[in-house]
Amino acid sequence: MKNLKNQTVILIIIVLIFGFFLSGCVSSSLYTWGRYQDAVYAQLNGESPESQMSMMEKDLQKIASGSKPAPPGFYAHLGMLCSVTGDRSRAIEYFKEEKTRFPESTPFMNRLLSAYGE
Q: Is 11 a domain residue?
């Protein structure tokens, strides 16, 4: 019986320690994701670019009024959608915005911009 109590106490301590370490991994996101992931999924399932753009631009308005920025790839995805619909100037604008906000995307954004003569 004493051995069972000791094992139970040890198990509880292990669970508490494990829980303590896991709680350090949980944090709020650095970005406002909105429905960005839904838009990517919609694109993969063949939904119209216009409806995706509408969804993402509504999210962009919410993001602008919030405290967290859009996630990496958000502006690039919007630029790609504009490109597909033939809106060259907005595509360039979004690609430049992605490059400005996320400098690590510069090589890729420069390649996309060079396709538009920028």
A: no
Residue 15 falls within a domain, yes or no? no
CATH number at residue 88: 1.25.40
First to last CA, the chain: 77
Region 78-107: what's the mean pLDDT?
93
**CA pair distance 11, 30, nearest whole angstrom:** 35
Average pLDDT over residues 45-65: 86
The domain containing residue 67 runs over which residues? Answer: 36-115
Residue length of the chain: 118
Q: What is the mean pLDDT of residues 62-79?
A: 88
User: Is 22 part of a structural domain of the chain?
Assistant: no
| pLDDT grade for 91, boundaries at 50, 70 and 90 | very high
Q: Is the dihedral of CA 52, 91, 65, 70 positive or negative?
A: positive
Q: Has residue 80 been placed in a domain?
A: yes
Is pTM beyond 0.85? Reply is no
| Residue 95 burial class via C-beta count within 10 angstroms: exposed 0-12, middle 13-18, buried 19 and up | buried
Domains in the chain: how many in total? 1
